[in-house]
Structure of IS630 family transposase:
Amino acid sequence: MPNAYTRTSNIELTDAERAELTSMARSRSLPAALALRARIVLACEGSNQASTDVAKSLGIDRNTVNKWRGRYARDRISGLYDELRPGRPRTVDDERVAQLINKTLHTKPAHGATHWSTRALAAETGISKTSVARYLKAFQLKPHRVQSFKLSTDPLFVEKLRDVVGLYLNPPENALVLCVDEKSQCQALERTQPMLPMGFGYVEGVTHDYVRHGTTTLFAALNVLNGQVLASCKPRHRHQEFLSFLREIDKAVPQDLDVHCIADNYASHKHPKVRAWLAQRPRWHMHFVPTYSSWLNQVERFFAIITDKAIRRGSFKSVKELTKKIDSFVRQYNENCKPFTWTATADSILEKLARLCARITGTGH
């Protein structure tokens, strides 16, 4: 049976239709089929566009072009969406779906569990677990997952936030911005049996038990400009070790540059002896991140990298061996390091915090 709409179906678009179709064609969130249909209509605009030429330019069949060309000529943009297809009628009405969603959001299981599971919701509501999983996915509900957060209680949160973010986005001239912190309790763990190598169909294996051979504290200073890291392992993390690390930084940084040091509110960072040492060196400027806001310190990102790639899955027979591994990793890291690109402004962070506060209003915070 020939198509009711052939290449003679002319497509004339208004400015509003053209703008909406262009947005659909470029969208990465819409289904790919819908974006393709929008591109077909845009390519068919005008009276001289043959379906064969459009099909060739888009790499599709001519009949597909004729179908959506004709559908658009008849129904406009609404015609590009899939029509309802015959099938088995719904067994779960809207009211039962609403009850399922409300139960997931506002109740807890009666048997004392902290959250609902798909099977528990199915048993409670009488809806099959497959349908429960489908509805939870449709409403983007994930009761099995939890996201941690911590609101800062620092009374100078806004001032400190703007100070640190300002150093990232607009660093001062003739100065070096360093993110400094320590990673304490780096454990030298020796696995009780050799690791199993990775192979086809299975991952690398390590024993769950281990022998502890002591700990070390990793002090690190991240250069915000180029991403290089100055690191030093010390046995403890008191003010004495922190002051010793500051002296190492002072020797490494050229004397004609000021030093802007971003650190957290750890007690050893504000010890009277540390303050006295800083007071004698006017080129040093300390910038403390707000309480419970270590995510503002970029060196924490380096700590995550070295933990994941060098420490967590390693096996070390002594603290000395762990220290050598850390030093080796830092040297190789500095050879090909790149700075972390900070893009968030202080205002955008405060707006995100405001949205979080709006969500948790009435929850006791």
Observations:
- The chain has a mean pLDDT of 89.
- The chain has three domains: 15-80, 94-138, 157-348.
- Residues 68 and 243 are 72 Å apart (CA to CA).
- The radius of gyration is 30 Å.
